[in-house]
Model the fold of this input.
Amino acid sequence: MATTDPLHDAPVDTRRAVDRWLGNYSEDHRHPTNILLHHVCVPLIVWTVVAFFWVIPVPPGIGEPGLWAALAMVGALGWYLRLSRPLGLAMVAVFVVLGAITHVLYGWLGATQLLSLAILVFVLAWIGQFIGHRIEGKRPSFFTDLVYLLVGPLWITAKALRRLGIAY
Done:
């Protein structure tokens, strides 16, 4: 919803910040194939970022493997929770699941193989994303603002909450 700024005679966007971010992101993701690719690739990319942080060595006495991943997730959650408490809490659940998966994979594979797997998945998922944007005919949103790298996972989570009938 837009009104007019009386001093500048320019439209003013009166939507909540979360609605602006998600609405703008949606504008770049309208083609069904691009949407499908994002529903697959965005969670995979988020997992790879968790895995990348997970394998960074933690000095003895400070913590265990996964500490840096946990801190990165907490940082992202701070932003998500400021935008929308329900969406932020849903992202807590997403991060718990991704952290649990990464913990299990780290135990099975070790740091080196986990890193190799994460690199492979990262590259393939980004190829999928760029194919989707090629089909869409629009540049990825993060080319205009890097914050959209955080908005992508939120966009998918918001869609899931809407399907479940949960308001955010």
Notes: The first strand starts at residue 2 and ends at 5. The helical segments are 17-27, 32-54, 67-83, 85-136, 148-163.
